[in-house]
Specification:
The chain has 248 residues and is an alpha/beta fold. The protein has a single domain, classed as NAD(P)-binding Rossmann-like Domain (Rossmann fold), CATH 3.40.50. Helix content is 48%, strand content 15%. The protein is built from 9 helices and 7 strands, in the order βαβαβαβαβααβαααβ. Strands 3-2-1-4-5-6-7 form a 7-stranded parallel beta sheet, sandwiched between helices. Helix 3 packs parallel to helix 4 and helix 4 packs parallel to helix 6. The longest helix has 29 residues. It is globular.
Length: 248
């Protein structure tokens, strides 16, 4: 199996892309620690995985709180002897015109989608550096590559994740740590399903494949960057969008 005997942390693992990623990695032999602010769903994912003899553990994580991030990183370090991978998959968005955004919404968007990933990566990097081994996959968004109406600050935060990926990849290459980025297009997640039907239909029509992605399809791209087939790839950004942004 692709991830046999490897340990990977996945944030946002309680639902959507994070959940699909955690379960795929576990099926490929990994021990997975998921972190999420939604404790009920997070524990349910771990319980479901255990029912299938998959090694998935849940730990609470609130990316808006530095103390929660530090506690999560310490708990991971106490539980695992070696960390092989980190997937910064947690995210949050609210579609709304920029001029209608309250400032507290900006702060939450940046805290979850950018600073949370930065802080957690900093907390979990030292063991990887010491081992001179590890792979990090950041989940950004095509909104961060090309922009998106109604998601201006979200796009700014996700664009920051892309720049963070590229810059950190340059710094960590000397330690043989690979850092790459996956940018999903519209994907069938709870966030997408919460949007008005007309918006969902318009997005689907705009995609050359005429369908939105399933979370498992994004998870496959994450698995590629965590597995041995990407050992000589770092600092790269992969759009998984059914061709929606193929020319950008």
């Amino acid at each position: 199996m692709e991830m046999q005997d490897r340990t990977v942390v996945v944030t946002g693992g309680a639902s959507g892309i994070g959940r699909a990623t955690a379960l795929l990695l576990a099926r490929e032999g990994a021990r997975v620690v998921i972190g999420d602010v939604d404790e009920e769903r997070g524990r349910a994912v771990a319980a479901d995985a255990a029912g299938g003899s998959l090694a998935v553990e849940f730990l609470p994580l609130d990316l808006t709180l530095p103390a929660s991030i530090a506690g999560f990183a310490a708990a991971v370090e106490a539980r695992v002897s070696r960390l092989d991978g980190l997937v910064n998959g947690a995210g949050w968005d609210r579609i709304q015109p920029f001029l209608d955004n309250p400032p507290e919404m900006w702060e939450r968007l940046i805290a979850i989608n950018l600073l949370g990933a930065v802080r957690l990566t900093r907390g979990l990097l030292p063991p990887m550096v010491a081992a001179r081994s590890g792979k990090i996959v950041n989940i950004s968004s095509d909104a961060g590559r090309v922009g998106s109406m109604g998601e201006t600050v979200y796009a700014a935060a996700k664009g920051g994740i892309i720049a963070f990926t590229k810059s950190l990849a340059r710094e960590m290459a000397r330690y043989q740590i690979n850092i790459n980025c996956v940018c999903p297009g519209p994907t069938d997640t709870p966030l997408f399903q919460a949007q008005p039907e007309r918006m969902r239909e318009a997005l689907t029509r705009a995609i050359p494949f005429r369908r939105i992605a399933q979370p498992e399809e994004i998870a496959e791209a994450v698995l590629f960057f965590l597995g041995r087939r990407s050992d000589y790839i770092t600092g790269q950004v992969l759009s998984v969008s059914g061709g929606l942004t193929m020319v950008d």
